[in-house]
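Suppose a colleague, Dr. K., hands you the sequence of a protein chain of 157 amino acids and asks what its three-dimensional shape might be. Before reaching for any lab equipment, you can write down a predicted structure in token form. Begin with the sequence itself:
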Amino acid sequence: MESWRIQLFGSLRAHQGEETLSRFRTQKTGALLGYLALHGGRITPREVLLDVLWPESDLDAARNSLNVALSSLRAQLEAPITTPGTSPLGQVLITDRTTVRLNPVAFSTDVAEFEALLRRARTDQPDIELLSAAVELYSGELLTGLYEDWVLGERDR
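The predicted structure, expressed as tokens, is then:
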């Protein structure tokens, strides 16, 4: 199965083959996908996600909101299980009771590619082709339309 290409510059979009996702159950559901994608498949404790995405909610309500958002993302991003007892080929979300992450082999992002091109271009003689390719990827500010503190911090970076 083809991996997802998640665009974080400009409005959040996820592409897989001919399919494009640009609408999510709630803005927080999109923000959750953006956060997980921006962190490149690193394991994130659920408690961190609760603090980042639902800081004003009481703990039980925040946990419920996270579970609903994860379920919604799973329905949009993953192929249904067709054989009982097997996991879907397209598993994108890897979760357990305490952590969440995106499967690193199931997605790529424009931001990670942008940063990799910039790292490769940093030499005594900057590579204009690599810098031009990085500029082509930049299609607008990071996660346009999201104004959570973590987004603003990353946008400044």
